[in-house]
Specification:
The chain has about 425 residues and is of the alpha+beta class. It is built from seven helices and 18 strands.
Length: about 425
């Protein structure tokens, strides 16, 4: 349609539009779209050449922001390497929302490093702090019963099993269930890895409540309030606390109701569980860093923060990550910070660390790609597609408490790169 208007206004020729359309049709013919009998079924094709391409793309997309000569790592000179941070054991491979897909596998940074250094260098790990926005879901099996009533009354009309503690329905639910008015009961078990207070969180597009061994721990039913989750159709996360004994199994009963159609006709419920980490976790990380030859600190965000439908609340690393970096770097200046974010973050600790790399969300070969860069197999020749300001006030337009920062308050330099970069990134100076 746009092409037609452009031709009528004589801004482009009809031949140019026909040539563009011809290229699209030729591409469809080349991939066999004209010969397809119908909609092709989704397939999981895992090929060695695909793995190699993903690994190469992930490594070559990494951007070196600072390097005081510590990179690439010299394994022969290392005896003990500290691997610290919330993104060290968790492979943050993609953003949230429509950026998500089912990967064949996920290689975490520590797994990638172990595969390359495990036989020669001692790798020791500490979490340090967390960076999740919502409490982590459970990977366990649950049974679910559906009811054609808004209050779990009557006989179940459908039973099924599912893996994981999050489920979302769009238009249809399951055969025989009214998608405009139904309820469901999920049942599972949870074993506490250690004793202490555990946090249980519920988010739902609909009403929800959680019982642990028959005790109601989370009520997102009587006082449901809208939030930013599930494209604003869901609630804020409601959290309850219960003291658990180490190694003991607890019965979980999650009840959900969708009494009337809501925004986007989206129904969902999500259960998260975690034991909070505090000062002890940071102290352990600091002690490990002090006792190691060098420290690799994996921080940043994940698909819960970098997603569609909502903005990040600020430009800082979430949680206690900035504090973790500053304290670890004070204990061991030979610290490399690995950022995994979808956009710029402030770096108040920049002058305290030996190197900083922006690894983004590099796909399922995440840990292998990072290891390839750290060991000098791949030059981190990526370029920043966006400006990383030293702080928010350096940005030409930003909103603070409803007011816009005027342009005349800007300072010129964003930050200065170290002179020993392996490859200079595209950062404004």
């Amino acid at each position: 349609m746009i092409g037609c208007f452009a031709v009528e206004s004589a801004s482009i020729s009809a031949a140019a539009v026909q040539d563009s359309a011809r290229r699209v049709l030729c591409w469809l013919a080349r991939v066999g779209a004209w010969n397809a009998p119908g909609r092709a079924e989704e397939q999981a094709i895992d090929r060695p050449e695909h793995r190699a391409l993903i690994r190469r793309a992930g490594a070559e997309g990494i951007v070196l922001l600072k390097n005081d000569g510590i990179l690439p790592l010299g394994p022969d000179a290392l005896r003990k390497l500290a691997v610290i941070g919330p993104n060290a054991k968790t492979a943050q491979i993609m953003g949230g929302g429509s950026a998500q897909l089912n990967a064949h596998y996920r290689v975490s940074p520590i797994d990638g490093l172990l595969a390359r250094l495990g036989g020669n260098v001692e790798l020791a790990y500490e979490l340090g702090c967390t960076n999740y926005r919502l409490l982590p879901t459970l990977p366990d099996a649950f049974t679910i019963e559906y009811f054609n009533s808004p209050d779990l009354s009557g006989e179940p009309v459908h039973r099924a099993e599912l893996t994981g503690s999050e489920i979302m329905w769009l238009k249809e639910v399951v055969p025989g269930v009214d998608p405009g008015c139904f309820s469901a009961r999920l049942a599972g078990r949870f074993a506490a890895p250690d004793g202490g207070d555990f946090h249980f969180g519920l988010v739902s597009a609909g009403l929800s409540r959680l019982y642990v061994d028959g005790e109601r721990v989370v009520d997102n039913w009587e006082h449901w309030e809208p939030g930013q989750n599930y494209f604003t159709a869901g609630s804020q996360e409601v959290v309850g606390v219960k003291a658990l004994e180490a190694g003991r199994w607890y019965d979980l009963r999650l009840e959900f109701a969708y009494p009337t159609p809501g925004p986007l006709d989206l129904k969902a419920v999500r259960l998260g569980v975690a034991r909070p980490v505090g000062e002890v976790a940071i102290e352990r990380a600091v002690q490990l860093a002090a006792a190691s030859d060098a420290t690799l600190l994996f921080v940043g965000h994940n698909g819960e923060w970098d997603t569609e439908g909502q903005d990040r609340p600020h430009m800082d690393l979430v949680g206690r990550q900035n504090e973790l970096i500053e304290r670890v770097a004070a204990a061991n200046p030979q610290t490399v910070v690995v950022l995994q974010t979808g956009g710029p973050v402030t770096m108040p600790w920049l002058d305290q660390v030996a190197a900083v790399v922006q690894a983004w969300y590099p796909g399922q070969e995440c840990g292998n790609a990072i290891a390839d860069v750290f060991l000098g197999d791949v030059n981190p020749a990526g370029r920043l597609p966006q400006t990383f300001p030293a702080r928010l006030e350096k940005v030409s337009v930003h909103i603070i408490y409803g007011s816009v920062c005027p342009l005349e308050t800007l300072a010129v330099p964003l930050y200065t790169l170290a002179r020993h970069c392996i490859s200079p990134p595209s950062v404004l100076k």
